Amino acid sequence: MLDRRKLLQLGATMMAMPPLALGASPSSTSMSETTGALITRPVPSSGEQIPVIGMGTSRTFDTENDPESLAQLTQVMQLFFEAGGSVIDSSPMYGKAESRVGDVLRAMTPRPPVFAATKVWTTGKEEGIAQMEQSAQRMAVDTFDLIAVHNLQDWRTHLETLKAWKSEGKVRYIGITTSHGRSHDEFVEVMRREPIDFVQFSYNIEDRAAEERLLPTAQDRGIATMINRPYQKGSLFAKTRGKALPEMASDIDCDSWGQFFLKFILSHPATTNIIPATSKSHHMTDNMKANFGRVPDANQRQEMIRLFQSL
Fold first, then answer.
1. CATH label of the domain that carries residue 214
2. Which domain holds residue 219?
3. Residue 110: is the preceding peptide bond cis (ω within 30°)?
4. For the chain, N or C: smaller number of CB within 10 Å?
């Protein structure tokens, strides 16, 4: 948590940066260039609509609480909220990320609406409860919107706790996550047997393994999806560096490869929310433009795959 001295330092650092406040007019390179309404998708278990572009915090928010880092993360989160974002996902696995999210939220006046998501990543019932309570303190959250069991670690124990917490109103949604394409067999079995609201896994235009079982099962079972690694840890940009954006990108309101990759993920009907992670303001602005405009239809989706594979 920030003490008074560090809050004053953060304020001084922010004063030296270009003005950017919640509710202020976006800059000429931000959301003023987008058209249309904010794209939202429903959480199947409740019908609640959430914006399709969220914010991940893995690696990008794992920083010290020095004034420069906090000022940078504050500007990134301001841009996120300005563009209609609300879903912020973190985890105890991400080092100091939960704490940095909480530091920034505490300093924001007024505090913007947040759909706060984290994970439980430990073994044992009491250990899981203690970790989740600590996450709430770190992220400055009274009631989490979503807590998921991270990478299925001790999932039977933690899901029992989470189901009880949900019935008691201590958390709104519960789920499970996987990454790196591992444990899909067990993951699908949990999706089929347990009353979960969300799943999180990797999916992008290059790594499409989730299309085989994860996305169809989520669609069949009425489970919301949260997609991580939309840029394949940045490797997609290595393939497109120096390559012109295809003409068809304008048909789906994309003016960058990043938006192109995000719109591809949105073109799958089972996608609920995507959580690209960044600590750079210009990347956040670019990401959030994908939360507006047209979504590719089935034919355009196939053309996007063809164009990417031809690079």
1. 3.20.20.100
2. 51-237+269-295
3. yes
4. C
